[in-house]
Amino acid sequence: MHSRLKFVTTESEHFDGLPLPSHVRKGHKQEKSSTQHAHSLCFFLILVIALTMSFQTVYLHRSLSNKNEGFVDMKLNIRTQKRPAPPPPPTPEQIPPFLAPLATTNTANGNIFIKTGDIEDMWIRDSTAQVWPFHSSHPKLVLGVLKQQSEFLLHDVYANSYKNSYRDPSSLSREEQALGRGGFVATRNYELDSGCYFLRLLHHAHTHHKIDLRPFRSTVELLVNTWTVEQRHEEQSLYLYPELPRNGLGSPTSYTGMTWSGFRPSDDACEYGYHIPSNLFAAAMLRHVSTMFPDLSEGADSLRQEITNGVNTFGTWTDQNNIKRYCYEVDGNNNCNKMDDANLPSLLSIPYFDPDTNDYDPNLWKSTYDWVWSDSNPYFFRGKAAAGIGSPHTTTPTDETEKIWPLSLITRGLVDNNPTVKLEMKLLAERTKVNGKAHESFHKDDPRFFTREDFSWPNALLIELTAEVVDDVRVSNPNDPDFCDDLTSLLLDLFPTYLFPKLPGSKFRVTKILGHGQFGAVLLANNSITGQPEAIKLVEIDSEKVSPNRVRASTKNVLN
Questions:
Q1: Measuring CA to CA, which residue among 496, 408, 387 is closest to residue 4?
Q2: Beta strands in 66-110 (DSSP E)
Q3: N or C terminus of the chain with fewer C-beta within 10 Å?
Q4: Peptide bond preceding 345: is omega within 30 degrees of 0, i.e. cis?
Q5: Helices (H) and strands (E) in the chain — how many of each?
């Protein structure tokens, strides 16, 4: 299920009252024989059974109609009551509806496997991102995913995606065996950021849910040791992948203090082995390792310091105007890849993974941000539908179509502190959805041409951005006329006017913010037609089940 946010006006739910059915009139008492009493009793029991079955049939029919047709009021020739209150939000013991089609729970051990979408495999990176919007409200979900991730990493720390069931390697083709597939391994593209995502989720679960860390210690130690080995990939690493240059070793690298990665977060091979966004992500997560496992802190702290020194020494470039920026990749041999990719971690996303700015330079990132979100970035595309960052994963020498990834739009909204930019990026992400979903990428001129029918990652990230937009609306000054005018304009642009049958687009103006929730807000608007203030509520609506003609929108005089 993929949800989107719509603005509707609130009204108390109610049904029209219906006349009560006629009561059975009492007849005169008559003397009855025992046979008559028996006949009367049988007739009475049959009548009761028939009425009971009739009520159940009508109730079932009404329930199914409500389930299948959205908001439906059915006139019944029996006593009706108000629609039951909606069920409470999912408890931490339940899988959120957003993840329900993607998650499989192992009842024996509590592990939770989450496929990435239309691909049946589980990525460490994707699964962390998919549960992140629910990391505070669903601790058992987080724990189940962490347990599954931990087992996968222990099974093969160099893999990037995994199967939900074991496959005998001997049953696979020679090509698949050569690529390291088999067992639980789906693909063995070593990506540094996979372990970073695991540590990010583990640290949150430890900090907020006080989970027992002991079952995860061996996995964390394995990650730290692997990252240490990969500092000297040329001399010490045993990892080879046939699709990489030099018989699987990858392009040449020299020691820098950073840790090597064979592949990018896009699953594409790195041009140069030190991926700067992933190394900064690793440095931030190594701080968490030291706080979670004090006995590992000496090695983790040393590794973190070597990584950050390496980034500062080898991971930047300066243009002709003496403006310094981060490289996307380097090799320690004076080569710097000047680009950015939409997949996270990216240069654009650096503050998202290190909000306390412990391990990167904010000024250096700001100049990098300005560069990657411009035509200077070879994978920044402008079109009729949007402007944003794409990826070599979908714009290739054999397919030069310029495709924008919604991930880049959403990421910009998450890292830019300007509320207007956040709203603008949410607007673009919503506009470019097709079939109610954000996809992997879309053509810069027409979102109807997209890749990946079902790609959960950007949709999960959009939930995060939506929450931040609501918070930004809440903290902004609601009494500022310019702000209210801008907000009104943006809302009218973002949400179709069919949601406002009683508030035509040109006839209302936001005047005050009344309150907010995790995924919603209530605003006050003046309706110039009625002269009455109206409450407009931002609510979560299932875009796959609610079509325009089913949306119930009405107004409520909030002064009463």
A1: 496
A2: 103-105
A3: C
A4: yes
A5: 16, 19
Instruction: Select from 335, 346, 390 the least CA-distant residue to 368.
Output: 346
Rg (CA), the chain: 29
CA distance 380 to 249: 30
Alpha-carbon span 75 to 114, nearest angstrom: 43
User: How many C-beta atoms surround the C-beta of residue 246 within 10 A?
Assistant: 10
Q: Are 259 and 273 in contact (CB under 8 A)?
A: no
Q: How many whole angstroms separate alpha carbon 179 and alpha carbon 2?
A: 34
Residue 83 one-letter amino acid: R
Nearest to 310 by CA among 242, 383, 257: 257
Burial of 234 (0-12, 13-18, 19+ CB in 10 A): middle
Give the span between the Cα atoms of 54 and 77, in whole angstroms: 11
> Could you write out the three-class secondary structure of 410-457?
HHHHHHCCCHHHHHHHHHHHHHCCECCECCCEEECCEEEEEECCCEHH
pLDDT digits (tens, 9 = 90+) for 476-501: 444 455 545 555 555 544 443 333 33
Q: 68-94: b or e for each residue (b if 16 or more CB lie within 10 Å)?
A: eebeeeeeeeeebeeeeeeeeebeeee
pTM for this structure?
0.72
Dihedral sign of CA atoms 89, 91, 92, 96 in order: negative
Give the C-alpha separation, 203 to 191, whole Å: 20
